[in-house]
Write a structure and sequence with these properties.
The protein is α/β, with parallel strands linked by helices. It contains 15 helices and 17 strands.
């Protein structure tokens, strides 16, 4: 997958799949400007045979009207296309949401340059480069996390050494197993794990999460970046304000310990899928800020890593991994897990407040997908405090939090598509992150994307996704001959398939692109 990513990026660029100028909008409304002199009676005649009704006039000087589309009878983009073809219409646009500029009230937030970098420190002295950040405030205007469009509580797994489970800026966001009773020595929910009321400890094979400074400091910091409780007038902000953090201890010692930790998360998600959401947890991402230096994931010595990531991915869980904290080309020297080729893995290196790759951080154009802030990152700390840490371990949780936030912002269509196709949809979320990065000179030629995480653009893309089987191959909101050309070339193998293209072109929902889909697309255009 990673070895062909440059080709994928080129294909996506050619097909204009990135539409950064879009905004989140009301899914069944259009704002239409009619020519001067067109009255409400005239509009009623125009709409006589259409499943579109007048809501109200919103501007007399511009003759602007708000129209509502019956989505059971007509898709919004088709209604917009119809209105734009009416001679009496100047333009028709979606009713985009607007909001107040969103910045949290956490007192230490101004020191979190990774979220919002002004180029100055808190004393007004030059420090870093303005906008060398992930554009978090802009993303938070769209969503701050919590639940997705279908009401599912979003969970992010953190496999690490432990966590301060009493931390005041984490405690409200910690996932708890409601089906288990703490400390009774009984597997209450029959999931094979005794007393897993707050996660799992793979070291001790029990539910007691390590909370000592030695065990929990690293994991507490990582967890805070993913999802410290935010806008609570306390300490720091997290990427995702209200995500549930599933804490699993199992990030060191042996591969078997790590696999047990992963398995707990995987089984929790499978239970959720099998029970229709009544059991387990809606886990969408897992953070792995650990690994094996100089290991070769594709060798016969490490088959379990790709195997586990693929199995988790098929259940809809993306794995986000930190690369080595050494200036080495992992394509040549190896690294576990960031050289693994699973299409459900995102490998992350470290960038600083000047938007440069940190010297002591791994790279590799085939293996490392993108960069994220990781030098002097402020987050939650052991003993209920806060502190600075540096390393790729601090970079990866930005991406883990991003995946969770994208799920919270995702359009209802994308959320539904994920429920019915978790594996393919997980790859779509991955592709969205990798195709919305900010390009950086110091990452060009040494990472697959050549860029650093842009949370805003990734969240924006998830929020506006409406491509499940509708034939809009270039995602421009219209179905026309351009989409036919793309679909024909996809069928002929002239362009490489991506998760987005597969989702948009699969008009008969058989998880394949065939001539039948082309026939269906032409029928839509002729309708």
């Amino acid at each position: 997958m990673k070895r062909t990513y440059k080709i994928l990026l080129l294909s996506i660029l050619i097909l204009n799949l990135s539409y950064a100028g879009a905004s989140l909008f009301v899914e069944n409304d259009l704002i239409v400007r009619f020519e001067e002199g067109v009255t409400e009676a005239d509009i009623e005649i125009i709409l006589l045979d259409e499943p579109i009704q007048i809501v109200r006039q919103i501007s007399r000087p511009l003759n602007l009207w708000l129209l509502r589309v019956d989505l059971d009878k007509k898709q919004l983009f088709r209604a917009q296309r119809f209105m734009q073809a009416v001679p009496e219409v100047r333009y028709a646009q979606k009713d985009h949401f607007v909001s107040l500029r969103m910045e949290p009230d956490d007192p230490l937030y101004p020191q979190q340059w990774n979220f919002h970098n002004t180029g100055m420190d808190i004393n007004g002295n030059p420090s870093g480069v303005e906008d060398a950040d992930i554009d978090a405030p802009e993303a938070w205007e769209i969503s701050t996390g919590g639940v997705n469009a279908l009401g599912h509580r979003i969970v992010a797994g953190v496999v690490d050494g432990g966590c301060d489970m009493l931390h005041p800026d984490l405690i409200d966001n910690l996932w708890m197993n409601p089906a288990d009773t703490a400390g009774n020595g009984i597997d209450d929910d029959g999931n094979g794990y005794i007393d897993d009321f707050q996660g799992w400890n793979a070291y001790g094979h029990n539910g007691d999460i390590p909370m000592t400074n030695f065990d929990a400091n690293h994991g507490t910091h990582v967890s805070g970046t993913v999802g410290a409780r935010t806008n609570n007038e306390n300490q720091v902000a997290g990427v995702n304000w209200e995500v549930e953090l599933m804490i699993v201890a199992g990030a060191s010692t042996t591969t078997s310990i790590a696999m047990e930790g992963y398995s707990y998360i995987l089984e929790s998600k499978l239970a959720w899928l099998d029970s229709g959401g009544n059991e387990g947890a809606f886990v969408v991402a897992v953070n792995s800020s650990f690994g094996v230096n100089y290991g070769n994931c594709d060798s016969l010595n490490y088959p379990v890593w790709n195997d586990m990531y693929n199995t988790m991915g098929e259940a809809g869980i993306l794995s986000i991994a930190a690369t080595t904290n050494s200036h080495v080309n992992v394509d040549e020297d190896g690294d576990i897990p960031t050289t693994c080729t699973s299409p459900y893995l995102i490998s992350v290196t470290n960038t600083n407040k000047n938007d440069e790759k940190v010297h002591n951080a791994g790279f590799g154009v085939e293996s490392i997908d993108l960069g994220a802030p990781g030098l002097s990152v402020l987050s939650t700390f052991y003993n209920q405090g806060t502190g600075l840490k540096s390393g790729t371990s601090m970079s990866a949780p930005h991406v883990t939090g991003a995946v969770a936030l994208m799920h919270a912002a995702a359009s209802s269509e994308l959320a539904q598509y994920y429920d019915t196709n978790p594996g393919l949809a997980a790859q779509i979320f991955r592709s969205m992150i990798l195709t919305t990065v900010d390009s950086l000179p110091t990452l060009q030629g040494i990472t697959a994307t050549g860029g650093r995480l842009n949370l805003h653009q990734a969240v924006l893309k998830a929020s506006t996704w409406m491509s499940a089987g509708n034939g809009d191959m270039n995602q421009d909101g219209f179905i026309n001959i351009q989409d036919v050309v793309i679909l024909v070339n996809l069928i002929l193998g002239n362009i490489e398939s991506t998760p987005e293209l597969l989702a948009a072109g699969d008009l008969n929902y058989d998880a394949a692109i065939t001539v039948q889909d082309l026939v269906n697309l032409i029928a839509i255009i002729l309708d």
